[in-house]
Write a structure and sequence with these properties.
The chain is an alpha/beta fold and 508 residues long. Helix content is 32%, strand content 15%. It has 19 helices and 20 strands. The strands form 6 sheets. Strands 2-1-3-4-7 form a 5-stranded mixed beta sheet. Helix 6 packs across helix 8 and helix 11 runs parallel beside helix 16.
């Protein structure tokens, strides 16, 4: 039976045969012995942590680029732990691979998780996490020499040199180079003696416990001050981009271990901020927001979602909370009534280049700035949940907004910096003006048929209903009571990739 493919229907074979391009990390493949393999993935330390903490069911989370090593790691760990302990490999993450996938771990009722590869180091919410970052090679001597040379060349002027002498230097690096952190700190201290600058470094923990755990003592390294110089060791990554965004007033010197080059990376910070400012202005023009849940494992994600809902409700904006897993344009294009998305995710997955998406995607901090009556953005940027809630989550914003609504004209036009024109903002939720509220209730245009039982609902508080009313195609016409029942006949048979005809067609 041949099946004809059209632009709207395919056989489905392409989905099965499609190949996905993954940049496999083959660092461990170049190791010469199993002893080096065990040292690279810290097999002994991981087994010891599992035994000492008496974890019975442990999930092993791998990113796609390390999945080819998962079987060997599983077998070598299994030989070193008790027979009463079970290991499970998590081969696909619900969200970003840098985050701890507590959702998948709960499917197997795990009481601990081992995270392999790059990690964003966000504070976990439910499970203890053992981190195995790997040990990528780095030339420590070349790193120190090139970074200090670049730092000296940009500090050649007397004024700049004097300014840098008084600044603190903070050392930051990708988690894959944690095994060389001690050597990096010692060599930088030696190389910076004639600069008379203080070098600060906070160790990256190899294990994190939930906040409510009785033995939770190891905390994440604190953020660097805004008035300092930062040395970053690592290749181009989202971690470096976030560092540039959140420390826009700092000079950041970047060394790449792969290319063995060093440069002043903070020169492109203004361009990054300008892109985010443009996305924020699009969010300012939106009236219907979609809150995208991009994590279920980072602590404080639930209070932040609640805060965003309160903030949007106080500004008379409509919000929908959506959990779609990993983002792609096809998924978000299903929600055409939403004018702007707010992504609640870990810092490394919060900044999304939305040029391929139909609607803009902004961060919770950008939403805070966009909804201010008078925008005054100094370039400050916050991606951490705890810091954002500490600064903007205090107090009841609903009461503040309702207090300001008394002197606010709901029908006043709003100027858009995106289009260069005035627009009338839609108002959702409770309206402060009694006149406007009664007018909406008495208007027949504010009512819409809700279901086939002719039940009515208010249109002004439903963004989806308003969007449906504006569409030319609103679904199949039910034609209730207009057509006589037809005779029951044998339908088509087969599977979704290709249906056969009716029984009469087969006889003929």
């Amino acid at each position: 039976m041949s099946v004809e493919n059209t632009a709207f229907s395919t056989s489905g074979e392409e989905v099965i045969t499609r190949s996905i391009n993954i940049e496999v990390d083959d660092t461990a493949d170049r190791l010469k012995s199993l002893a080096e393999f065990d040292a690279f993935y810290e097999i002994e330390r991981t087994a010891r942590e599992i035994e000492e903490d008496h974890f019975k069911r442990v999930a092993l989370q791998f990113p796609d680029e390390l999945l080819h090593d998962s079987v060997q790691i599983f077998r070598r760990l299994k030989r070193r732990i008790g027979l009463d302990k079970e290991l499970y490999v998590l081969a696909d993450t619900s969200y970003g691979s840098c985050c701890v996938d507590e959702v998948a771990a709960q499917h197997i009722d795990a009481n601990a998780l081992v995270h392999y590869g790059h990690a964003c180091m966000s504070q976990t919410y439910r499970l203890p996490v053992i981190y195995v970052f790997g040990k990528k090679p780095i030339d420590v001597e070349d790193c120190v020499v090139r970074t200090v040379e670049t730092f000296s060349s940009h500090s050649s002027s007397a004024a700049s040199l004097e300014s840098n002498r008084s600044k603190k230097i903070v050392l930051r690096h990708d988690v894959a180079y944690t095994h060389q952190a001690g050597r990096l700190v010692d060599r930088f201290l030696e190389a910076l003696t004639h600069f008379d600058s203080q070098l600060a470094y906070a160790e990256i923990p190899d294990k994190l416990l939930p906040p409510d755990h009785p033995e939770s003592s190891r905390i994440l390294p604190e953020e660097a001050d805004q008035d300092c110089t930062i040395f970053y060791v690592g290749d181009e990554s989202l971690g470096l981009t976030n560092l540039l965004m959140t420390h826009s007033s700092c000079d950041i010197y970047h060394y790449s271990p792969t290319s063995q080059t060093s440069c002043l990376a903070s020169g492109r910070t203004n361009k990054l901020l300008m892109r985010r400012y443009a996305a924020m202005q699009k969010g300012r023009d939106a009236d219907v927001f979609g809150i995208l849940v991009g994590t279920l494992g980072v602590a404080s994600y639930l209070p932040l979602i609640k805060h965003i809902r309160t903030l949007l409700n106080a500004s008379h904006k409509k919000s929908y909370t959506i959990s779609v897993g990993k983002l792609n344009p096809s998924k978000l294009a299903n929600f055409m009534e939403i004018e702007c998305f707010v992504l609640v995710a870990c810092p490394e997955n919060s900044l999304v280049d939305a040029k391929d998406f139909y609607r803009p995607i902004i961060t919770p901090y950008e939403l805070e700035v966009a909804l201010q009556a008078e925008q005054s953005w100094t370039g400050k940027y916050i991606l951490d949940f705890e810091k954002l809630l500490a600064e903007y989550g205090q107090g009841d914003k609903t009461e503040i907004a309702e207090g300001n609504d008394e002197d606010k004209d709901e029908d006043a036009p709003v100027f858009s910096l995106v289009t260069g024109k005035y627009r009338h903002a839609k108002q959702f939720g409770p309206i402060s003006s009694e006149t406007n509220s009664m007018g909406s209730l008495n208007s027949s245009a504010a009512l819409i048929q809700r279901n086939q039982d002719n039940a009515l609902s208010l249109l002004n508080d439903s963004a989806a209903a308003q969007f449906l009313q504006s569409r030319t195609y609103q679904g199949l016409d039910p034609r209730l009571g207009q057509d006589a029942p037809s005779a029951l006949e044998q339908g088509r048979s087969g599977i979704a990739r290709g249906y056969g005809g009716s029984a009469e067609d087969h006889k003929s």
